[in-house]
Amino acid sequence: MRNALWVVTAIVFLGQTATQAQTPRAPEKIIIDTDIGDDVDDAFAVALALKSPEFEILGFTAPFGDTRTRAKMLDRMLGEAGRGDIPVAMGASSNANLPGFNQRRYAEGGTRYRASYPDSTDFILDQIRRHPGEITLVAVGPLPNVGALIDRDIATFRKLKRVAIMGGSFQPIPNPYGLGAPTPPMPEWNIKNDIKSAQKLFASGVPVVVMPLDSTIGLKLHEVARNQLLAQGTHLTDMLGTVYHMWRMGTKNITPTLFDPMVLAWLADPTLCPVTPMHVRVRDDGMTVAENGAPNAQVCLKSDNETFLRFYMGRVGSK
To answer: Phi and psi at residue 135, in whole multiples of 5°?
Structure first.
């Protein structure tokens, strides 16, 4: 009798375990703060977010530069991808005449514009209040919106689940072919364009996940992968092809580096970029440094380009 009871108990336990293993996790609520329109990796990050069932995208926000045109670009992408239901908000414009907005023709073309865009700070704070402790803010551009959130209402900001950023540089980066000296750490674009906001973020007490140059500068969408991806003929890959060629003509580059998509890839599959706990401080010159102290960030220092590309292509290239 005792053995029979043990067998029944084991069967029930195993059945519950199997059911739990088969139960998909609830989609993670995210807001994506992006300076889309300059480097083309932001558009590739948006595409990955839209194709990832792990995410419930609450909205997109534009933090830097000509924020209205960035919002219009997001608006058009979402409309043409069939996701015009996702809100778009914009921060205050700053340095609106910065060179490099090489995808402006895409942003200003099309007909899917909303009449207006709400303020990013108001929008994000409202979403945090609706979903305390549940939202990951994905910041893949300079950080004025993050600084504005902290200045406006740090108590609500601290109810974010975490902030995941592409930013910073920590260690010398080896030459990929061993034919030159390593590239020393440097003030990275997203950090150095709003140093004070970056300092506020790492001092805020909110968990921060960091994908720095160390783990993203090698993420090259090389010719073989690029041609295969852009030949898929979906609405999303056709859009990526359009903005890729605008970016290529504007920069004279051929191979994009997919810095920003790694943040979304990590959120979907953390094995793609293992993280290390660190205490990170942003110096006044924009350098990100690891110091002694209680960890305030999880930082990925190394990734594998081919593993990342297999993941990315499988998502964004799927019909």
So the answer is: -100, 135
